[in-house]
Amino acid sequence: MKAAVFHGPERGLVVEDVPVPTIGPSEALIKVAACGACHTDLHYIEHGVPTFKKPPIILGHEASGIVEEIGPGVTNVRKGQRVLIPAVLTCGKCVACRQGRENICSDMKMLGNHFDGAYAEYVAVPSKDLLDLPESVPLQEASIIADALSTPFHAVKNRARVQPGDRVVVFGCGGVGINAVQLAVLAGAYVIAVDVNERKLEWAKQFGAAVTVNGSKVERVSKEIKKLTDGGADIVLEVIGNPKTFEEAFECVRIGGRLVAVGYTHEAAQIVSGKIMFKELEVVGSLGCRPVDYIPLIRMVAQRRIDLKKIVTHRFPLPEIRGAFDVMHAGESLRSIVIP
User: What is the pTM of this model?
Assistant: First the structure.
């Protein structure tokens, strides 16, 4: 089969022929319909972030497909079934899993990181994690539910705890951020979107943002937000993963408000801890999505409350996968999908 194999920083990503994966007794072989191109993959390819499985490794963690084959111990899916593969697979046994917080499982495994992923014609995964996709959900576009939608869904619903009427600021309007915008709007919030790319800010308006702020055209984003919200936002989500924007996001939160860190960075940010105490602020992290939350999210897509085709702005065949990262670099895409 054809697959996009990451050979390390020197050789990068190479589309080549590799064997079709073999499956164990409790696994399923999935014929990949599509796999979303995520900024996380750029961290591996260009930014020196190591994968848990040393290269060569097939990348890609945001996938949907059709069950091609099942192991003898599999009873929860059948051959020919349409399925979503969650980006992160959980153990179900650790303390976090037992507490219903599987997204911070102590033994989590990530597709295209701990084991070979879905930039390929086929991928092998444990069947227990697979989720059924109804016919009303477009199969290729459904791939982005696995991360670009599920990550902000958890952030908005469980960590930010957005309520109707909340004033919510979203920093970053890329693939994850734009969905944070639309999910916060669906939750009844008044949403302000922040970015430096006018095209992305225009998309944010299309997804329901009441106001947009171009961070490159104002003196301080926090000053602008305080003007727009009469002193500060109820909730701010930082979906970029940049220390400077995290610091600015922190300054946008009103007294008693909440800051949610959704974007990843390994660099330190400087915030005044005394402000957390004196303003009684909440600063919380948000990682991935709990398995239980995929069910209502898939239902929202099936009910057409979320339009996947509007989010997927580009499609690339597997041999042209580099194009997905080129449009990402150029800020021209919301989400691209790679189709084997």
Answer: 0.95
